[in-house]
Amino acid sequence: MQPRMSMVTLGVRDLARSIAFYEQGLGFPRMESPPSVAFFTLNGTWLGLFGRDDLAEDAQVPAGGTGFPGFSISHNVESEAAVDAVFEQAIAAGATPTKTPQPVFWGGYCGYFKDPDGFLWEIAHNPMMWVGPRD
After folding, report:
1. Taking the model in full, what pTM does it have?
2. How far apart are CA 132 and CA 77, in angstroms?
3. Which CATH fold topology does 1-60 show?
4. Which one in 12, 100, 125, 127 has a CA-CA gap of 20 to 30 Å to 111?
């Protein structure tokens, strides 16, 4: 069996704004892709951005929706200082803070923000285990 890779695709309201947020704002490396979608390489996965209405149509579900979607996307980094730096970079790029970085009950350090479409991101440092590929 071939190795598999997961990809997270976000249905976004303004594709150009979201591309700018992730590419210029957060510095995610963008892959070559058609104009109607954008792909970014991440460690061990890809992030895809697709128009919200188009993604809903593709999945055959209504495009409307409000409230907490029941998930967050976590981005794990190597230190508390890196959490602070990524968090500030996201805010400067237009993210909305929901929880400033701080020590958490499980012994790590994290903060949360919403991207321009309201998707919830956690920026975390877990000193008990590394999440991601080893060099």
Report:
1. 0.78
2. 9
3. 2,3-Dihydroxybiphenyl 1,2-Dioxygenase; domain 1 (3.10.180)
4. 12
Each domain of the chain, given as residue ranges in start order, spans: 1-60, 71-130
Burial of 108 (0-12, 13-18, 19+ CB in 10 A): middle
Count other Cβ atoms within 10 Å, centred on residue 52.
Answer: 19
Interval 68-91: pLDDT, tens: 666 788 888 889 999 999 999 999
Distance CA 37, CA 99 (A): 30
For the beta carbon of residue 107, count every other beta carbon within 10 angstroms. Answer: 9
One-letter amino acid at 33 equals: S
**Residue 4: φ, ψ to 5°:** -115, 155
The alpha helices in 1-135, defined as continuous H runs, are: 15-20, 52-59, 80-92
Task: Write down the architecture of domain 71-130 according to CATH.
Answer: Roll (3.10)
